[in-house]
Design brief:
The complex is a heterodimer of chains A (691) and B (185). Helix content of chain A is 43%, strand content 22%. Chain A is of the alpha+beta class and 691 residues long. In chain A, strand 22 and strand 23 form a beta hairpin. Chain A is flat. By secondary structure, chain B is mainly β. Chain B is built from 3 helices and 12 strands; from the N terminus they run H-E-E-E-E-E-E-H-E-E-E-E-E-E-H. In chain B, the strands form 2 sheets. Chain B has a 7-stranded mixed beta sheet. In chain B, strands 4-7-8-6-5 form a 5-stranded mixed beta sheet. The longest helix of chain B has 9 residues. Chain B is globular and about 40 Å long. The N terminus and C terminus of chain B are likely disordered. Classes of the chains: A alpha+beta (691), B mainly beta (185). The interface between A and B is large, with 38 and 36 residues.
């Protein structure tokens, strides 16, 4: 039966990643609880699944490596090996190797260079001669290992269900696996259920097997072979005496032609009655109630529901003038349902941050090991949910932050003890939701930021003038400036000067923000604020003449109504207002965006009164002059680049309740527009409509 | 009569019905210009701009819409009218008159937006009025005139009949070629 497996491969890659993740998590837990058999079982199951699946999909490198790993894990689980730090290190490295091998199969990235090295190490610990592990042997079903003294004969009966193949199972793989565990003394195929050829459905399994196997392996490992049996399939494993084995062999020798060619049913029936443990296959690894859905499909659904919301509110507005009370009532009921629907649809994209946090566990561990520190890693609020895109994209910045905390934040044990702290430092990662935002806090009880050094460095790099007297919080936040790294010597772990600046850029790209609080000698706390989702934005709707623009609420500090003559001219700077002692430059959006002023209002009056929205971007404040505030609203972000290109000063577009398109201002871009406003000849610029 | 072009017959009919100077039944008799056998037939949607007739390949046309309110985009060349909401998609609207360096026309009841697919993108073209669907054989399309030094790459050719001369536009070139700066865009 030749089927195209390539489309299943994608699923394998996803699953392999999950299994590797659970392996890693269990391994890290194992460090503190080396005797936990449940953890060992988890690790073993994950490895076993990866092995089975990779062999099925013909990714032999993964299969081969995992096979060796599995052998070791098996001995570990059976208590033949002791867990120690060295072994866990090796296993963790193995997880990395498998990850790299899977990546190799998936994207063709180069094979991990430590593959052979790790493989050798695994084999050494395993105490197995490496010759057993060559690919020819693992694929060789008829390997005959000489039975040793401890070997025990087993009788195994396999009764696959008719649907066996449908569950992606293959009896051949089972037989192969069994044969690798020992010597198959005898195999009897029961083909009594096999129908006439005309009635045979090639996708159903009609055969069952009786196997006599002599093996050194524990009975438990035999059960593991059948771990993924579906509910309808049954198998039995029975330890038999050598004599019974000999009899069985003799019996089948005499009936050889029969046993292979045809029925063995009466025999099977008889055997079933004997007092053996009958095992119904456990349901596949605690199948959680989830469905895998293509991400694009999901996004499309959410988009469409967004349209329904807009559509419904358009209808509602149209109805207002001609509808009677009842219609209005149904309309508002519909409106509510639609909004609920949208909320639910946005929930579909939400995933807990736990997996990302878990990754940090490993990062901390590795850094601590490398730089010789003792660090306890604590997480809180692992089940806080965030948009999938946000979770994916916050991972890298978090790794960087966590590394920094472990490398720079936490002191060496000696330093800590000298400072009267426990030798073991604590790095705590905490997530929680507040309002429409998710906060991720990274707290360490390390040495905190060294203000003096930061300031020196900032002056040295020309980031501040030597005379400046920045506030404490200003100094702390200098670490986010480009080209800033306080580590006096560049370590392998961090301190290349691209650190926190990149972190901040990444966080801001997610419409989030980052800040730091630090007490010297007591530790630091980094707080990352992220939006729940990227698809929706809280916006302040403002009017400019007849156009409506959306200003992201995130960047809005406040709005003020100006009195005449509040706007002052300063030569070389332009127009400014004085806001509680602070000078804030004014940007007339009409001018920056080239929108004709509202002619109804007297120009002279317009010039120096009206409403300004104070926005903040990277610590820089700007007063945007607008005609009117229209209110605050959640808007669905539409990308202008889909059908056009990036427009300076515009972050995107959205469709308002009445169906018209409003542009979302990019505060950062608009402030740059103001910089180049003077020498900009907008309409004569060669602007191209690149497809 | 084959109707294997992407515009729904209904859309076009409804649209044309609104036009006083065009009888609905004209839709039925598409103007066929000397199609000789063995010639492949090309279909173009023709429209008016400044009393000139232009045509674009019908396969690129997604739909035709009445002119509705367009949200202007700041700091854009004049030919970019802005964006509009096409059933939830934000679509860029190009004023084809301006794009071809003609004077801006007043928007009246005949002004329509032809929604086209250019590569992966959807754009709307503002034109004075749409006329009909023109079937032209290869033999009746003449290459774009070579005028020394003047870029005519956005012209696919000229389709002619006794009393008509239709300029066939290559909107892929016209709207997507970044080096095409001669048009002032």
């Amino acid at each position: 039966m030749e089927i195209d497996v390539s489309r299943f491969r994608a699923a394998f890659y996803v699953e392999a990643a999950e299994h590797l993740q659970s392996m890693e998590a269990a391994l890290l837990q194992l460090e503190s609880a080396p005797r936990d058999t449940e953890l060992l079982n988890t690790i073993f199951r994950a490895a076993h699944t990866i092995k089975g699946a990779s062999t099925t999909f013909g990714i032999d490198e993964v299969g081969r490596f995992t096979h060796v790993l599995e052998n070791l894990l098996e001995r570990l689980r059976d208590g033949l090996l002791e867990t120690n730090a060295e072994l866990i290190e090796l296993l963790l490295t193995s997880v990395d190797v498998i990850d790299a091998l899977v990546a190799n199969a998936k994207d063709g990235v180069p094979m991990p260079d430590n593959l052979e090295e790790v493989l050798k190490e695994l084999q050494r610990v395993n105490g197995q001669p490496s010759s057993c592990l060559s690919p020819t042997n693992t694929n060789n079903g008829n390997r005959t290992a000489a039975p040793t003294v401890q070997s025990q004969p087993y009788r195994i009966q396999i009764h696959p269900s008719r649907e066996f193949f449908r569950f992606g199972q293959d009896p051949l793989l089972l037989l192969r696996e069994l044969s690798e565990m020992g010597t198959i003394v005898n195999v009897i195929v029961d083909d009594s259920q096999l129908p006439q050829l005309a009635e045979l459905n090639p996708e159903e399994c009609y055969l069952s097997w009786n196997i006599e196997l002599e093996t050194e392996a524990q009975e438990q490992s035999l059960h593991d072979v059948f771990m993924f049996f579906d509910d309808g399939s049954k198998y039995t494993i029975e330890a038999i005496s050598r004599k019974a084995l000999a009899n069985a062999v003799a019996e089948s020798e005499t009936n050889k032609s029969v046993s292979i060619k045809s029925t063995a049913t009466p025999e099977v029936d008889r055997r079933v009655k004997t007092d053996r443990r009958e095992v119904v296959a456990a349901p596949v690894a605690a199948a959680s109630e989830t469905v895998r859905v293509d991400r694009l499909l999901l996004d499309e659904l959410i988009n469409q529901i967004g349209e329904v919301v807009i559509g419904a509110s358009m209808v509602e507005q149209d109805m207002l003038c001609l509808a009677n009370g009842r219609t209005l009532e149904s309309m508002s009921a519909l409106g509510k349902i639609v909004r609920d629907l949208q909320e639910m649809s946005l929930g579909l994209r939400m995933v807990p941050i736990a997996a990302t946090f878990q990754k940090m566990n490993r990062v901390i561990r590795d850094v601590a090991k490398k730089v010789g520190k003792q660090i306890q890693f604590v997480t809180e609020g692992d089940d806080t949910e965030l948009d999938k895109t946000v979770v994916d994209q916050i991972s890298d910045p978090l790794v960087h932050m966590v590394r920094n905390a472990a490398d720079h934040g936490i002191e060496t044990p000696e330093e800590r003890v000298a400072a009267g702290k426990p030798a073991e430092g604590i790095v705590k990662l905490r997530a929680y939701q507040q309002g429409g935002n998710v906060y991720i806090e990274l707290q360490d009880d390390g040495r905190g930021l060294n203000r003096k050094r930061i300031l020196e460095k900032a002056v040295e790099r020309g980031l501040v003038t030597p005379e400046a007297t920045p506030t404490d919080s200003e100094i702390c936040n200098m670490i986010f400036l480009p080209g800033f790294s306080t580590a006096t010597e560049v370590t392998d772990v961090s301190g290349r000067g691209v650190g926190m600046d990149v972190v901040r850029r990444n966080v801001e790209a997610l419409q989030g923000s980052i800040s730091i609080k630090s007490i010297e000698g007591q530790g630091s706390r980094l707080t990352v604020r992220l939006p729940l989702t990227l698809a929706i934005l809280d916006g302040l709707l403002v009017r400019l003449s007849s156009e409506i623009f959306v200003i992201p609420l995130l960047s809005v500090v406040e709005s003020i109504c100006l009195k005449p003559r509040d706007i002052k001219q300063i030569i070389g700077v332009g127009e400014v207002i004085k806001l509680r002692g602070e000078i804030v430059p004014v940007l007339r959006l009409h001018r920056a965006l080239h929108i004709a002023s509202d002619s109804r209002i007297d120009d002279a009056l317009m010039a120096d009164s009206g409403i300004v929205v104070i926005v903040e971007d990277q610590g820089r404040r700007l007063a945007l002059k607008v005609d009117e505030l229209m209110g605050q609203q959640q808007v669905v972000i539409k990308n202008l680049e889909t059908n056009f290109r990036k427009v300076p000063g515009v972050a995107g577009a959205t469709i308002l309740g009445d169906g018209r398109v409003a542009l979302i201002l990019d505060v950062y871009g608009v402030s740059n527009l103001s910089d180049s406003e003077a020498n900009r000849l907008s309409t004569n610029d060669p602007v191209h409509l690149t497809a | 009569m084959t109707t294997n072009h992407p515009i729904e017959e209904k859309t076009l009919t409804t649209l044309v019905k609104d036009k006083t100077d065009f009888e609905a039944e004209h839709i039925g008799d598409r103007v066929t210009l000397g199609t000789t056998s063995g010639d492949s037939v090309n279909q173009f949607l023709t429209f008016d701009l400044n009393d000139q007739e232009f045509g674009i390949e019908i396969l690129q046309v997604q739909e035709i819409k009445n002119f509705t309110r367009v949200t202007p985009i700041p700091n854009m060349p004049e030919c970019v009218k802005g964006v509009m909401n096409l059933r939830g998609t934000v679509v860029l609207i190009i004023d084809l008159r301006k794009k071809l360096n003609m004077s801006i026309a007043e928007i009246n009841q005949f002004t329509v937006i032809i929604v086209v697919n250019v590569g992966e993108k959807i754009m709307g073209l503002v034109v004075d009025a749409v006329s009909d669907v023109l079937n032209v054989g290869d033999a009746d399309i003449e290459g774009a005139p070579k005028l020394g030094g003047i870029d005519t790459s956005f012209i696919k050719g000229l389709a002619k009949s006794a009393d008509r001369l239709v300029t066939l536009l290559d909107i892929e070139v016209l709207l997507s070629d970044p080096s095409n700066a001669t048009l002032g865009v």
